[in-house]
Amino acid sequence: MTDQTPTLFPAGGAPAARAQDFANSEMFQKLFREGMDLVEETAAYLDGPGRDDSKSLDRAGALSYATESMKLTTRLMQAASWLLAQRAVSEGEMSAEDATDGKYRLNADRPTDGLWPEGETAPAVLMELVTRSRRLYERLKRIDDNLYIDGLVDTDANPVADQMAMLRGAFGDR
Description:
By secondary structure, this protein is mostly helical. It has seven helices and no strands.
């Protein structure tokens, strides 16, 4: 699967309508399965062979392993939560309008590099899972941004002045 996420959802139209269309798409179904498969694969590694990998590291390496695996798990749980919210829209368990709420949106991933001490080699399987999870998260974030953008942002807009004008209009110039 490529990292290229096509722009399937034009900026026109309501975010909720775009979310509903996406949630019912074949693209979403494939992405959902890919994400959940990666979650399962990662859990199996961390609960099995990953434990052995971490035991073979020195103290500093084991700390790096623990940090990396926590970041990996957090990233995947955020991705899974987003995917499950989209599936809830698809299955009618959540309205598309509710899915546009900020609590269901993805934040930018802040990967850190350089966790591993000099001379310590990170377990290859762990790092492959980290790489795949970052790619998945980046794709989901691009889709999230594309789905929920509400038109073009006016950089000259002054939200405070706009609100004051609305209040003056509602209550008059008292």
